[in-house]
Amino acid sequence: MDLATLWFGIIAFLFVGYFVLDGFDFGVGMSLPFLGGVGKNTDDVTRRQIINTIGPVWDLNETWLIVAGACLFASFPEWYASLFSGFYLALLLILLALILRGVSFEYRHQGKSERWKAGFDRMIVIGSAVPAFLWGVAFANIVQGVALDERHVYTGTLFDLLNGYALLGGLTTLLLFFTHGVTFVALKTDGQLRADARRLALRAGLATLVVAAAFLIWTVIAHFSVVVLVLAALAAVSLVLSIVSNLRGREGWAFAFGALTTLFAVVTLFAALFPNVLPSTIDPAFSLTIENASSTEYTLQIMSWTALVALPLVLLYQGWTYWVFRKRVTRTSIEGAAAHA
Length: 341
Known about the structure:
By secondary structure, this protein is mainly alpha-helical. It has one domain. It contains 14 helices and 2 strands, in the order αααααααααααββααα. A two-stranded antiparallel ribbon has the order 1-2. The model has no long low-confidence stretch (mean pLDDT 92).
């Protein structure tokens, strides 16, 4: 395996990590209207329980996107340039949504009125749903190919990216992240909220199964290979096992299988893309591939040694963080904190 192919695999690994981890963050944020009653005069303790499940980790999860973007820029500058110029408006909307969500997490608790909190809760929902949908649209377009000319410049418009396959991809990630997040709420809370989250995860999981199956079948047909078929099948089996585990009240297993579903789904897309990194629908000769989009051998060597040292440390720190905050977020703890505020 040459270094360019190795770094294609590392980029895939980083995006898998981002979608698995920030994916359930998005799902938790989107669950607020269904479990916390955003915009209604409902129990604020429930909404705080939901938000606090990801309070210690959401910003750490987002760093995977920063690392993935930085590595993409350094290892595949041509891919980075074509992607960020062609998908500029879509990526800008994602960035603005992530900023909106981050600000809402930090400022929600600064005010005491219900109107103040409800306003920021709505922004958390929007800031979670928009990236969850647009990431699916973006990656579906990357796999399907876009209108790249001989200079590797995207010649289409934002509306060209909103095609049937891409919209189905966006709906798939939206529902998949929602289900993943609601399962996480069930895993991390207690009482009525835990029971409500389990029921919602079951209904959302069934809807996700239908939509994701359609998207994966479309992907397999359009980019058939034995590897793509096997990975898509593993994603489907993992999702079914997640639904069954949730039905049996095994939230930990349901969450683990949900993470595997996201992992296999993302790897399926990268396998369907290989050895291209951004296909051209104008002429296959204009496509960006692993070979013509990568950095120099010397650059990739330096990056490889850096990753060999840094990546294990990042993984250890991430694992330690989740271990420290592994306990459930209970109503008692929220009410106790409010009493001493």
